[in-house]
TrEMBL record:
Residues 310-382 form the J domain. This is DnaJ domain-containing protein. Pfam families: DnaJ (PF00226). It comes from Amycolatopsis rubida. It comes from the Bacteria.
Length: 385
């Protein structure tokens, strides 16, 4: 006997909701494809520009080949060829390093073509009278999709992040900002968290403008690594307050934990948890908060950035690794005895207030230096290399 009751799973409302979910999923997949092709293509451009700094264009053959659907035919500076596949093929010697770089870029371009036909890619134009060949504008750097996502970040989060970057050693901050500017400007792919860091400098250096390379030449691979780790740490929400033990996010890698000053959180009206949850693992959203297209975003004059506290100096200790825990304990006890305002009842109110402030600073220094993990992170900040 057949029931006349409609199956709720096929009701119009249910189908409509399911269709909306399918459509949303399909749009998400298409957006992911667009971004993947975009990033891969820009990475290929950066690879060629590093090998050929004066290059302005390349010619790619998209005719079917046994292994690749795209093959770089030439790399050019205006009308002058800098490299040609014909010359490389006619060379008696085995392929050299330059040939291998161009081949690697060809593989990256081939990946982009798996998602979109060549005529739809930015900066591509058909080569006259040569079917299947396209001229690539290597100077074209299209903007990243969803640039306006920065507007979704509370202003306090962005300011706190900027102040945090300002507190890092200048080389680390420079590396982090260049990494983030490169992501925003689509000059290369985001590095995976498990990237081979000995390749970091080579990947990023090729994207730095020649006029700026003197400044970046002082950066070591370790500077790049620490700056990038901190950027990924912000994305992961791995943050902690300098002056307390409060922390959020994954702790499996100390290299990624980002220290933030309590005064910066208070000044910008945000909590540490809000900073931890602001980015949801999206490195490019962090890049929008950190990057400064003009080169350097200065902190407001009325809100000076707080320098790293001199914890060793507060306890009267030398700043070096030979200072032991017993040295720290003894120095702390001596400073406390000297600063306890309640032990000298005849001092004036102004002096009593000043000594209370000094006592609080000494207590803060002892809290950090007496904790092995906190001290290790502090030592890395004041002298990371």
């Amino acid at each position: 006997m057949t029931s006349n009751t409609a199956d709720p799973r096929t009701a119009p409302g249910r189908l409509t909701a399911l269709e909306r979910r399918v459509l949303a999923a399909q749009e998400a997949i298409e957006q992911a494809d667009t971004e993947h092709a975009h990033w891969v293509l820009q990475h290929a451009y950066a690879t060629l520009r590093e090998q050929f700094p004066t290059a302005t264009s390349a010619v790619v053959d998209t005719g079917l080949r046994r292994t690749l659907s795209a093959w770089t035919v030439s790399v050019n500076a205006s009308a002058d060829p800098l490299w040609t596949a014909a010359e490389a093929a006619s060379a008696i010697a085995t392929p050299n390093e330059i040939d291998e770089v161009v081949e690697g870029a060809s593989w990256q371009i081939d990946t982009a073509l798996q998602y979109y036909p060549p005529e739809t890619l930015p900066g591509w134009s058909p080569k006259a009278d040569e079917p299947g060949r396209y001229v690539l504008d290597l100077t074209a750097v299209p903007t990243v999709p969803d640039q306006d996502r920065q507007d979704s970040l509370p202003a306090g989060i962005s300011r706190a992040v900027q102040e945090t970057v300002d507190s890092w050693p200048w080389q680390v901050a420079l590396a982090a900002r260049e990494y983030c500017r490169g992501l925003v400007e689509a000059r290369y792919l985001p590095l995976e968290e498990t990237a081979e860091h000995d390749e970091v400098r080579a990947v990023l250096a090729r994207t730095v403008a020649p006029a700026d390379r003197a400044e970046f030449a002082t950066l070591t691979a370790a500077h790049w690594e620490e700056g990038i780790n901190y950027v990924h740490g912000l994305a992961l929400g791995a943050v902690e307050v300098w002056e307390t033990s409060e922390g959020y996010g994954p702790t499996y890698s100390l290299d990624h934990i980002v220290p933030i000053f309590q005064c910066s959180l208070a000044r910008n009206g945000v909590s540490l948890r809000e900073v931890s949850e602001a980015f949801g693992g999206d490195v490019r959203l962090v890049a929008l908060a950190v990057a400064d297209p003009s080169g350097r975003r200065a902190a407001p004059a009325e809100e000076p950035v707080r320098p790293l506290p001199k914890f060793y100096q507060r306890l009267g200790l030398p700043q070096n690794i030979v200072v032991t825990r017993s040295d720290i304990d003894a120095a702390y006890r001596a400073r406390v005895r000297a600063l306890r305002p309640d032990l000298v009842p005849t001092v004036c109110a102004a002096q009593r207030t000043a000594e209370k402030d000094d006592f609080a600073q000494v207590a803060e220094a002892y809290k950090v230096l007496s904790d092995p993990d906190a001290r290790a992170r502090y030592d890395r900040e004041i002298s990371p290399f």
